[in-house]
Amino acid sequence: MATPDASEPTTVPLAGWESHFADGEGFRASDDPELQLLTQQLPSAAGSRLLDVGCGLGGYAAGLARWGYDVLAVDWASSAVAAVRDRYQDLVPNLTAQRLDFTDEQAVGRLGADAFDVVTMRLVYPFFTDKRKLAERVRRLLRPGGAWAVTTPLAERLSARRYIALSVGEVGELMSGWDSGAWVDLEPGGLRCIVLRR
């Protein structure tokens, strides 16, 4: 899949994602130390519903399901959803997957208001063009006290491919308007997870 340079818009056409995931290509895999740091910031897994937006090949969603969350993994690429269903059949019913374009207001609305305790977005937030509407959708999906966890590299830490990351200023914008917010570095000089509470 061709990737944009830092000066190009961050929107990648659906066809690009379809071929990316159909070829079995993913992104940087999560590991147990990352998941452990993340889950320390989230509501308890027991009885918690979690929505993983932009699930890709499903490794992150599967890891969270193994930690005890009831996970719905969504992606707008059918090939990604098919891969999750194929690779993680052993985790059903704790992990289910469906195709969902998270920019489609009506489709997201069908998930229901106050339906999730946690919404996660790992390495996908920078690809959404209308961040204000994105935040509104997430806020409606979260139950009171729920958490939105955005895992992303920071642009200041990258020498190339800065379009896949957030600047410090963008992190500040992301955190504004929430009841509380915190962040944790998941690895020194690497990924940061911003956790926002409703």
The named CATH superfamily: Vaccinia Virus protein VP39
CATH class: Alpha Beta
Query: How is the CATH topology named?
Result: Rossmann fold
Q: Proportion of β residues?
A: 15-25%
Structural class: alpha/beta
Helix segment count? 7
Overall pLDDT metric: 87
Number of strands: 7
- First CA to last CA: what distance? 36 Å
- From N to C, what is the helix and strand string? HHEHEHEHEHEHEE
Q: Report strand order across the widest sheet.
A: 3-2-1-4-5-7-6
Overall geometric form: globular
Number of domains: 1
Describe this structure in words.
With 198 residues, the protein is an alpha/beta fold. The chain has a single domain, classed as Rossmann fold (3-Layer(aba) Sandwich). 30% of the residues lie in helices and 23% in strands. It contains seven helices and seven strands; from the N terminus they run H-H-E-H-E-H-E-H-E-H-E-H-E-E. Strands 3-2-1-4-5-7-6 form a seven-stranded mixed sheet. Helix 1 packs parallel to helix 4. The longest helix is centred in the C-terminal third of the chain and has 11 residues, at 131-141.
List the helices and strands and how they pair.
Layout (H helix, E strand, L loop, with lengths): L13 H9 L9 H8 L9 E5 L5 H8 L3 E6 L2 H10 L7 E5 L5 H5 L6 E7 L8 H11 E11 L15 H8 L4 E6 L6 E6 L1
Parallel strand pairs: 1-2, 1-4, 2-3, 4-5
Antiparallel strand pairs: 5-7, 6-7
